[in-house]
Amino acid sequence: RRSINMSNDQIVSFDDEPLILVNSQDEIVGHEEKLASHLGQGMLHRAFSIFIFNSKGELLIQQRSEQKPLWPMFWANTCCSHPRRGEETPDAADRRLREELALKSNLEYVYKFEYHAQYLDLGSEHELCWVFVGRCDDAADLNPNEVNELRYVAPEVLDQEMEAEPEKFSPWFKMEWKKLRTDHWAQIEKLS
User: Fold this and answer.
1) Which of 100, 125, 127, 176 is catalytic?
2) Which of 68, 130, 158, 176 could cross-link 48 (Cys pair, CB 3.0–4.6 Å)?
């Protein structure tokens, strides 16, 4: 187990953390607390998703904590969150990977996209999401406040699971995985 400067059960997500509101061109238009940004139809805010692959080419995926207000216990990509007011997105991605999983990787930016997804009547994600990929073989140390379970999965197996049981996966994960598989797989295969 790697030593890091925090316990793995640190509280790292707060309802009042200031998120960055953006327009469809990813230009900052204001700031709002995380809770308010996700209520109802949600407010468009900047976010990121990280996909970490091991040297065997398997993707590390997480089952979201049951404490999550939106999509609890759904399977999602390695890590996702939001940059906070005044924080650059690549820096936020590095921070969150450490906070949730105690991992460090040289993350590569792939693409960004806007999406909206409603979760029951509890709220929604309305995000301009930056997608990053990286390679790492270190053992993850999950933060139970954020993550319920972790597992590595081969890409072909994940394709089959998403096809067979799409309801088990978060909406952004399904959208991002499809785009990575169809448009950006060469970049993933070149990860060092």
Assistant:
1) 127
2) 130
Q: Would residue 79 show up in a list of annotated catalytic residues for this protein?
A: no
* Per annotation, catalytic residue among 79, 80, 129, 136: 80
Residues 169-174 have a mean pLDDT of 98
121 contacts: CB under 8 Å, gap ≥ 6:
none
The DSSP result for 113-171, as a single string, is: EEEEEEETTTEEEEEEEEEEEEE--SPP---TTTEEEEEEE-HHHHHHHHHH-GGGB-H
Tokens found for residue 169: 């996966």
- Provide the pLDDT for residue 4: 37
Per-residue exposure over 58-74, b if at least 16 CB sit within 10 Å of its own CB, e if not: bbbbbbbbeebebbeeb
Please check the confidence at residue 87 and state whether its pLDDT lies above 60. Answer: yes
